[in-house]
Specification:
One of its GO terms (molecular function) is hydrolase activity. It is an enzyme of class 3 (hydrolase). It comes from Cohnella boryungensis. It holds the Pfam family Bac_rhamnosid. By secondary structure, the protein is an alpha+beta fold. The protein contains 18 helices and 48 strands. Strands 21, 22, 25, 26, 27, 28, 31, 32, 33 and 34 form a ten-stranded mixed beta sheet that branches. The chain has a five-stranded mixed beta sheet with strand order 2-8-7-4-5, with no helix packed on it. The N and C termini lie far apart (64 Å).
Length: 962
């Protein structure tokens, strides 16, 4: 077998995509190699036309001398609409070895121009139907085909949401198509291969048309509508083996009828009357019991805004069985799914005709054990089913989704609920999982699970704030603080590509950014919320090297920064207008949601950050003049920030945790001031008994600010804080997702508030980013996107965790990093994918140590460079799997001599002397040298030495603590 192999071919992030409208799609692949240190020297990419003939290809790059293996742009002859193409790749590595050709991959185009749409938008005819109701409607058409079908494709969408049926079969597992976009500017359509569903002779198409996001979104009793009427658009192309083609279109020949879905909205749920089912409505030869209506052609609806599907579809990705049935003190029959999930219940029942079963969904129980609906606000989250009475019936809602762990069931036949009759179907955008994290603390592992469940529940086509109450909106602030964690967890390239395009589409003429995208609320331009316009495209670029998206979004990014620049009297400060501030900060004034950090400080800090990212984007895109302009602007904003918010003695003027965090994380302080600001931040944490007071703005960066500035142990103690407020508090209370408030559920079982209290709100899950990068130590080198250059530097300087490991499936392949401690022995393991390199920093190690303890030495194969530094051993490694073993002085230093229990009894100078004296002795056999004539009482006399074991030191520290 060839030791070099090309695998995992993708086109526009997807495997064998169907229905692209991109004239120049991009290709990516990964390499597998048995040799360490493998790099791609060059590649050959071949694209075949509709005939899939690689001997006479449409485009052959020839050998291209480059290590680029992601985002390769097609540059061959113009692609044709509705055409399937094949491609394959082979590569050569730096030693000259060549791979075989990869397996063949495909992509297929849809409509490359809007003018190719021949179909009409159609809607149920108003005569005889209440088209303004919340019911769903049926649309159908019969047609004929020949028996020599070669292929068939449907291109379809809806003003609303739809399901598509052909000859009695549902065409796709996709849910809530066409997804939610800024419909007036960008409206997705889907492509389906229906070749296998067609039959010779008579056929029938059916569309089930619902309301979805098209009408009725918003909150606080808003009811936004993109249009007055729901409508459908469909074009079926049937190609025959002799080259002939027939096209079936939505036009005035279709028919319409009410459906069994008599009510369906996103917030309130769905009512289904099975007695109204029309069996066979989507099959040829259907004869209706009642006459069907015609349809109206919607001349007012255009097709110029139509775009092929960009995001991954929404689907059922997992099923969950209830774990318990019980009757509450209030007498309600309730099922516990065991997990706060988002999706729907599929119910099976055998009941007399007309039996009405009502299922209401909720996240938690109250302190008395009754199901709690208060935090849903007006949202009903109710599924109602009226039985047909013809044996076993099965139903799940079509056009809504719920956020829940518990369901209350009313009207189900019998005295008790049969658990086996109910299944939870988890619904979200079907993204590929790419990130894992695990450590020695099971509470943290549960937190990691909660983070991922929170993302799954809130990534239902758009990044929503919550999935249960009357909101479920794409809040920009939530998205930008969580995006890095999100992209580590799941492949989110298509997801965020779609969403930031909607952001640009809904951006206001003056550059301001609405609070939610798609915008159905109004209001705009808060700091940290509108900055999503810059942060999100930049983060997608960092993870995937998507330079095209940066170029596409550059105007939006620039407009946002210029909008800020135009606010107020000082172009370098943002100190005017409304801002959400440090939303839900715990240092807020009573009866306020906005934390104590001045909004002007937050606004100016984000102004500096977005300007810096815009400058860096301009450099990447070769916009030299813009890069210089925004470099100067960024320096002036930083200067203004320092003059306005940093005192002459080097303190942050606002004594809040968030103010210090932003100053550190956005590089708003120089090196002289940084040390003091970091120490002050640490003091603010310690003085609060290792609890945070940060809100939505400060929390995502808090632990980074500490770990990056020498206070990693403090950051870990915050992570492991089980009392309120802390990440593990919700875990200790049984949470299975991330909460909106640190105390959404209080220790006494009462609730924070009915007003705004989601138990599935992913923002504070942004801690996951720090867990991956700092605790497990897997990070990217920011100078090169997409993990082409990897940085591995685990910060294990704490006794509280004994191992951590993580992995991330990058565009180049799977990266793994992990460490564990066994006594004095430290082991760091890693896997680096081919065509990448990594800088590995082993804190506290020396190159000599690596050769003594059984792991890889500094001169092992695959290691290109190695040196000793003040931080420890630093190695440059190529692809492959490595294991480094050593004894770590830094770990001991942090855990013992800098432990606060010891510091209370020693001056800083004495502690430093202990460290200097102790470190050289760490590897001198099984005993350690510790300062003091009496280790329990006198720790300041440098001349008298006591030789004690590590176990004895633990005992000393325990006694000191008493």
């Amino acid at each position: 077998m060839n030791r070099l192999k090309v695998v995992s071919l993708t086109c526009e992030y997807r495997t064998n995509p169907l229905g692209l409208d991109i004239a120049q799609p991009r290709f990516s692949w990964q390499l597998l190699s048995e040799e360490r240190g493998t790099l791609q020297k060059g590649y050959q990419l071949v694209v075949a036309g509709a005939d899939s003939n690689f001997e006479a290809p449409l485009w052959d790059t020839g050998f291209v001398d480059t290590d680029q293996s992601i985002q390769i742009t097609y540059a061959g002859p113009a692609l044709q609409s509705r055409t399937r193409y094949s491609y394959r790749v082979k590569v050569q590595d730096q030693s000259g070895a060549q791979s075989d050709w990869s397996d063949t991959a495909t992509f297929e185009t849809a409509f490359l121009t809007a003018g190719e749409w021949q179909a009409d938008w159609i809607a149920p005819r108003t005569a005889g139907l209440d088209v303004q109701s919340e019911a769903a409607f049926l649309l159908r058409k019969g047609f004929e085909t020949r028996d020599d079908i070669a292929s068939a494709r449907i291109y379809a969408t809806a003003a609303g949401v739809y399901e598509l049926y052909l000859n009695g079969q549902q065409v796709s597992e996709d849910l809530l198509a066409p997804g939610w976009t800024s419909y007036n500017h960008r409206h997705q359509y889907q492509t389906y291969d229906v070749t296998a569903l067609l039959q010779s002779g008579s056929n029938a198409l059916g569309i089930l048309l619902g309301q979805g996001w098209y009408h009725g979104m918003g909150f606080e009793n808003r009811n936004y509508a993109y249009g007055e009427r729901r409508a459908a658009l469909l074009q079926l192309h049937v190609e025959y083996k002799d080259g002939a083609e027939s096209v079936i279109l939505t036009d005035d020949s279709w028919q319409s009828s009410p459906s069994a879905i008599v009510y369906s909205t996103v917030y309130h749920g769905e009512t289904y009357d099975a007695r109204l089912e029309q069996t066979g409505w989507d099959q040829a030869g259907f004869v209706a019991d009642k006459p069907w209506n015609g349809v109206d052609v919607c001349e007012e609806k255009t097709k110029t805004q139509l775009v092929a599907q960009e995001n991954n579809p929404t689907r059922v990705t997992e099923t969950i069985r209830p774990i318990a049935y019980f009757v509450t003190p209030a007498g309600d029959h309730v099922l516990d799914m065991g997990q706060n999930m988002v999706g729907r219940i599929r119910m099976t029942v055998d009941a007399p005709a007309g039996t009405r079963i009502v299922v209401r969904h909720a996240e938690v129980l109250d302190k008395d054990g009754n199901i709690y609906f208060g935090n849903l606000r007006p949202a009903k989250q109710t599924m109602e089913y009226i039985a047909k009475g013809e044996g076993t019936e099965c139903y799940a809602p079509h056009f809504t989704f719920m956020g829940f762990r518990y369901i209350r069931v009313e009207g189900y036949p019998g005295d008790r609920l049969p658990i086996e009759a109910f299944v939870g179907e988890v619904v979200h955008t079907d993204m590929e999982p790419t990130g894992q994290f695990e450590c020695s603390d099971e509470r943290v592992n549960k937190l990691q699970s909660n983070i991922k469940w929170g993302q799954r529940g809130n990534f239902v086509d758009v990044p929503t704030d919550c999935p249960q109450r009357d909101e479920r909106l794409g809040w920009t602030g939530d998205a930008q603080v969580f995006i890095s964690t999100a992209l580590y967890n799941f492949q989110g390239g298509p997801f965020f590509t779609k969403w930031v395009r909607d952001l640009a589409a809904d951006q206001l003429p003056h550059g301001g950014v609405p609070f939610v995208i798609p915008d159905v609320v109004g209001g705009s331009s808060s700091a940290a919320w509108g900055d999503a316009a810059v942060i999100c495209p930049w983060t997608v670029y960092q993870y995937y090297g998507d330079k095209r998206l940066l170029a596409e979004q550059y105007g939006s990014m620039q407009a946002w920064v210029e909008y800020i620049r135009g606010q107020g009297d000082d172009e370098f400060l943002w100190n005017t207008g409304f801002h959400f501030g440090d939303w839900l900060g715990l240092d807020a004034k009573e009866d306020s949601y906005i934390g104590a950090t001045p909004t002007a400080l937050i606004g100016t800090a984000y102004y500096a950050y977005s300007t810096r990212l815009l400058r860096d984007t301009a450099r990447i895109l070769g916009k030299t003049e813009d890069a210089a302009k925004y470099d100067e602007l960024q320096r002036n904003v930083v200067k203004a920030f320092r003059e306005e918010f940093i005192t002459a003695t080097g303190r942050i003027a606002a004594p809040t945790q968030t103010a210090h965090v932003l100053a550190l994380i956005f590089d708003l302080v120089d090196d002289r001031v940084r040390t003091r600001v970091a120490a002050d931040l640490n003091d603010l944490i310690v003085e609060n008994n290792y609890h945070l007071t940060t809100g939505f703005v400060g929390t995502p960066y808090l632990c980074f600010a500490l770990s990056n500035n020498g206070y990693h142990d403090t950051a870990v103690r915050i992570l492991l804080q089980e009392s309120y407020p802390g990440w593990l508090y919700s875990v200790s209370q049984g949470a299975t997702t991330i909460w909106e408030h640190w105390d959404s559920l209080k220790p006494d079982g009462s609730f924070w508030s009915d007003d705004m209290n989601s138990f599935n709100h992913y923002s504070y899950g942004a801690i996951g980013d720090w867990m991956y990068r700092k605790v497990a130590g897997l990070d990217m080198d920011s100078s090169t996107p997409a993990f082409k250059k990897i940085h591995i530097e685990p910060l294990f300087g704490t006794r509280k965790l004994t191992y951590a490991r993580t992995s991330h499936l990058s565009m180049y392949g799977r990266i793994e990093a992990g460490w564990k401690i066994e006594g004095d022995r430290f082991e760091v393991s890693l896997t680096i994918p081919a065509n990448t390199t990594a800088e590995v920093v082993l804190r506290g190690a020396t190159l000599d140590q690596l050769a003594k303890h059984g792991g890889d030495s500094a001169d092992a194969a695959g290691i290109a460079a190695a040196k000793d530094t003040e931080r420890g051993a630093v190695l440059t490694v190529g692809s492959g799997t490595y294991c480094f073993i050593y004894l770590n002085a830094d770990m001991f230093r942090t855990s013992y001599t800098e432990d606060t229990k010891v510091k209370e009894l020693m001056s800083d100078e004495a502690a430093a002397a202990v460290v200097r004296r102790l470190a050289p002795q760490l590897f001198d056999g099984p005993v350690l040298t510790f300062m003091g004539s009496s280790p329990l009482k006198q720790l300041t006399t440098e001349n008298s030495m006591a030789r004690i074991t590590r176990e004895e030191i633990d005992a000393i520290l325990e006694e000191l603590a008493k």
